[in-house]
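ZP: hey, is the fe (ii) ion complex queued? I don't see it on the tracker
AM: it wasn't, my bad. submitting now with these inputs:
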Amino acid sequence: MYNQNKIEGIEISTNNKSKRIIELYLKDDFIKKLLFPFKRFDIMALEYKPFTRFTLAKNLDDLTHNKLKKLINTILKDRNTGCFLLKINNENKKIDDSFLVKLSTAITHLIGVPNHDSMSEKYYARFFVKHEDDSDSYLRKAYTNMDLHTDGTYVNQITDWILMTKIEEKNVKGGETTLLHLDDLENLKELSEDPLGRQNFIWGSPKSKKVDYKVEHPVFKKDEKGNINISYIDQFPEPQSIDQGVFLQRLSDALEESDNKIMTELPIGSSVVANNHFWLHGRKPFKVNKNLSRELLRIRGSF
Ligand SMILES: [Fe+2]
């Protein structure tokens, strides 16, 4: 249904692995028109003057005759979809890392307001995944599977959506993005109706996240339309009983064993944007390579 939308300069299609994921391809002539307004601010201006981020968003939407904001918000809030990929021609020499930061900034400010990212102390975070790592979470552990999860489980900010952009990648094999729509989880009914799934859990986080408090919330919650939402990650809940521990183990196994998990290879320069209440994301392990390097950008926020 979304591929019936027409926006000049943007090709709209459905992902070949899942009808729930919409693809938006920004053609080179569209990128060319964005270069001029995007040149007006450097990254420092975007970081120090929050209103400039909205200016970029407005420039982007104006180029689409105000169709893009409407389209991406409809996709993200539609329970049947809730996810889109933003793609560009990564052979286009005009597109560099600053351009990608600006594009991601503009897109997210068409959706809502980003949360402060305590890891980077900015509205966005850029980070590398490399061969060696001494951090304290799975985020930068290249050779470990990053299990399916949602973001923002351990903070008291609302995390309605997430954006991840692949800025750069070298010597990478494996490391595919995994995605799962909650309604495609085979035993969702059984798990979400279990009283343990509606009980408050304690959620903390390791030092690198720089969050010095803990929060309490259940794994499953119903939204105002009666749809089930999930807020879950394997690392951060602190179960207080065998029952709670066993429940989390069952959930973790169900997610990792799901046959409906989608594996996608994101090309350099592309972004995945997903509703964080009913899409889970993760990453496959990379193949070992000493020179492995992937740089990602993330922005998370509320509608
Ligand atoms: Fe995540």
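AM: back. The pocket of fe (ii) ion is lined by residues 149, 151, 281 (CB under 6 Å).
ZP: great, adding it to the tracker
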